[in-house]
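Record passed on underneath.
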Amino acid sequence: MLLLPDTSLIYKATVTTKDTEKLYYGLVEGDFKKRWANHRTSFKNAKYEHDTALSAYVWSLKDKNEEFEIKWKIEKKSTPYTIGSKTCNLCTDEKLCILEANKKSLLNEKSKLLSKCRHRAKFLLKNNYPLNFYVLLLLFI
């Protein structure tokens, strides 16, 4: 599957040990390679141990000296929030993947299902300083 650098998608990490198989779903808006590199950093550097449920689980396996393997898979390509849309397909698709997964093998936390979309914030007027400046400038001219 060809991935463009700015592709938004839902990914699945499957952590396999000799006894268990655990799943973690995540999303990325933009470059998956950067997100994957961040995950790998959190597996190597203890100060990032609690960044995600996946890294916490990997560190718990490392503490037990248990061998594991992580396989990465693209579950779905999706589109993030855009101006004028009422929902973020990217966040909704991730939540659907989590809901459809086997709960016993899932690493994702339930709080992720209740969280707000973080992709919408960049379109709020208060977060666009250059735009705010020009809007105010036009109002006073």
The chain has a mean pLDDT of 84. The chain is about 35% helix and 20% strand. The two ends are 52 Å apart (CA to CA). The beta strands are 8-16, 21-29, 69-77.
